[in-house]
Amino acid sequence: MIRDSPFLISMKTTIEAYTITVRRKREKDPLLFSDSPDIYDLMAHDNVSFIKYIDKNITGDLPAEKMTVRIPPKDHSHNDKKRYLCGIIETGYYGKEYEAVDKDDPKDETKKILLGKSKAILKPFFYYIQIPRKGNKALLILERVDNNGIYPLLRSILISRSQNTTLLSRRCAILSADRNAAEGRLPA
To answer: Which of 55, 169, 171, 188 lies at a 20 to 30 A Cα distance from 116?
Structure first.
């Protein structure tokens, strides 16, 4: 148990589903995923794939957000036929001191762990990105726990990965068993 922590409240885990479009700066129309370069291929197979990029450039301290990011060595996959990437990104905030104690005996001082302001409690968050061969809408599914999620982090990563030449727009998606989803025509 951690005193004064947001973890004391029972955590509510939800799934956020979005459609995202990608466009170049100063352009109104979104990019078509059938155009070159293939965005899925760049994220899944490029020398600096999505996970390698995060691990090399984003892992560690993000001072503006008072957050740290870590990529677990496993728990990432992609499927070229279905054109999706999924996995876990761990994040945690720092800047406040916490005291962790044994849940069964919180008064036992020998089991107490002090977490200083430079320590972060990392929480895993699931992500799923499906980029169709046609159309201009991709599917983004993210795990959210209470008021914590990774959309702002993923948005920053995707924009910085493209050297700030693209912008992302998102809309909440209503998921249904729809044949159009495979063709990039997801409901918004």
So the answer is: 55
